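INFO batch 0412 | record 1 of 1 | parsing
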Amino acid sequence: MAKFKVVTPAGANFGPTGGDYTYELEALGPIDAEIVEVNASSENEFISAANDADALYARGGRLTKRMIDGLDRCKVISVGSVGVDTVDVAAATGKGIPVTNVPDTFIEEVADHALTLILGMFRRLVTQDRLVREGRWREGRPELYHFPRLMGQTLGLISFGHVARAVAMRAKPFGVRILAYDPFIEELVMSPYGVEPATLADVLQKSDIISMHAPATNGTHHMLSEPQFRMMKKTALFINTGRGPTVDEAALIKALQEGWIAGAGLDVLEKEPPDANNPLLKMNNVILTAHVASASSRFDPARKRRVGQELASVLGGRWPRACVNPSVLEKTQLTRWQPYSMERGPGS
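INFO prediction complete | emitting tokens
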């Protein structure tokens, strides 16, 4: 029997490798920790199977307060993604359990994808592709005569965490003006990126392209709804590579249908996958991708190794690298080996 038991839900995984824990065990093996999959169709079954776990590897379904309260020995909950909206972090904090994520692992991929959607929407790439395939070659150039060039346009960023900063670095050479709204980031952080701090209203009213990067929290749920979409330019393009629930999807659909904004490029939706009758699926002024912005050949190895390292750190008696509820750390017996980060963790 291993020294440490790490429990994880069976069958829940982001990647294609199923129950292969080779990468996580690179760090967990040397401390004699094993990963145990549990099949649980109810909260009671989960509590019964996981109550003696030393750690929890959260993958897939939600971890509710009742499930977390049922953990008797758990020292850490680790999530292999940037977002931790599947975990009741407040409940974990109440139990004194650190919750870790991987806030800096997929930054470049997501920024690449955001810029891809920005350029694809701005140059009406899907429309142009369709015109060629339908034998309407001569309509392609006149279609673009209606739109300005990218240079001189204003890009507005909502939230200015790691991904948004990487987007700003990529977008700046195109000659765009960049505004950003983030009440949790110092103005001095934005200045080196050539980004102007702005209010949310300024970003919405002045931007030609608006890119959403806010994390999914109670405070950001439906952060953008009908009043916010009505503030945007009729020519504005909306991009979201952050989290679906930050946007009131019904309001976004209405904005697109009634022409409050010109188009949208969406990697995330409020419900994933979308229902077959979702109007977004039939809109010509929308580009959709299947929540794939972070995906690349390094996705699974990078995030899984990081999860293993975080779990091993805590089980080995040390602070994790990325903790979304750092207030619990000082109250644990874990050894502090690094200062609190001055950067924001959970949604960066």
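INFO post-check: The domain at 107-288 is CATH 3.40.50.720 (Rossmann fold).
INFO record closed
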